[in-house]
Design brief:
alpha/beta, 2 domains
């Protein structure tokens, strides 16, 4: 049985009212909104369009997906947007192993650097000269300093390894073979520990434990940066970048940027950056 347009609208309102039942104050505020506002973030017309000619069960599923998708696209406030995506991604991660959830981590990182490459100059004094995806598991990043007449640069290989990682380590060993020790490095990511003794070039290779929490936060960062690029409110742009930079510095990405900056500047790298402890 296909519901009529007015039944579809009422179904959506009833769904939202039930959803807010655990917070009676919020539910009361929702019911005090005008009728048109009670369909937000959708509207009366789009609700009917989303439902289409479907059964009640299918209508509910379609409206749920449309509601979540619209909330993700909606620019409300940077911190709210970030936490919303984190919460949504955390639910997805709960139903998957870390191996499965982080399987496309390199794609996530590629998107991140593509989106923030213009911000790196202001924040870190670095220019991303090269971003090349060498395989599904590996990307190559080449950084240089802004306005550097000496043409100094540092190259970083970023590789995600699976359960069997010997072949991946051999590939990295070949990539680094014969290259300058002070400007070629590799960060190795894996949802399980790799013993330092297994690294063929420990002075150039750094192993980090890849967790679902890392992937969640990086996906939320990418979402926030997309909103930032399209949100013209200067206050929102500034606050969004503050959150993004804070999150980056708390992950291995910040470690890479600090390491690169110190190498290019010719300074000795902080011991915390160089040690192979897992984070």
């Amino acid at each position: 049985m296909q519901p009529e347009p007015e039944q579809i609208r009422e179904l959506h309102r009833a769904r939202l009212t039930h959803w807010l039942a655990d917070d009676t104050d919020l539910q009361s505020r929702y019911l005090q909104l005008s009728m048109a506002e009670q369909y937000l973030p959708l509207d009366t017309q789009s609700i009917v369009q989303v439902a289409g000619n479907a059964s009640i069960r299918e209508v509910l599923e379609k409206l749920d997906h449309a509601f979540k998708d619209r909330l993700q696209q909606l620019v409300i406030e940077p911190n709210y947007d970030f936490e919303f995506v984190c919460a949504e991604e955390a639910q997805c991660a709960q139903n998957q192993s870390e191996w499965h959830y982080t399987a496309n981590h390199i794609k996530t990182i590629r998107q991140l650097f593509q989106q923030i490459r213009n911000d790196l100059e202001k924040a870190y004094g670095l220019r991303l000269r090269e971003l090349e995806e060498q395989s599904k598991e590996t990307i190559r990043l080449t950084f240089e300093t802004v306005h550097d007449t000496q043409n100094r640069w540092v190259r970083v290989f970023l590789m995600c390894l699976g359960r069997r990682y010997s072949e991946g380590l051999n590939t990295l060993d070949e990539l680094l073979r014969g290259k300058h020790l002070d400007c070629n490095f590799a960060w190795i990511l894996r949802p399980m520990e790799i013993e330092i003794s297994r690294l063929p070039r420990p002075e150039q290779m750094f192993s980090r434990w890849l967790t679902s929490e890392m992937e969640i936060r990086l996906r939320a960062i990418n979402h926030l940066q997309e909103n930032r690029l399209h949100d013209l409110a200067q206050g929102h742009q500034t606050e969004a970048w503050r959150i993004i930079q804070q999150q980056i510095e708390g992950l291995y990405i910040g470690e890479i940027l600090q390491h690169v900056a110190s190498r290019i500047q010719g300074k000795s790298t902080d011991e915390k950056v160089l040690n192979n402890s897992l984070i």
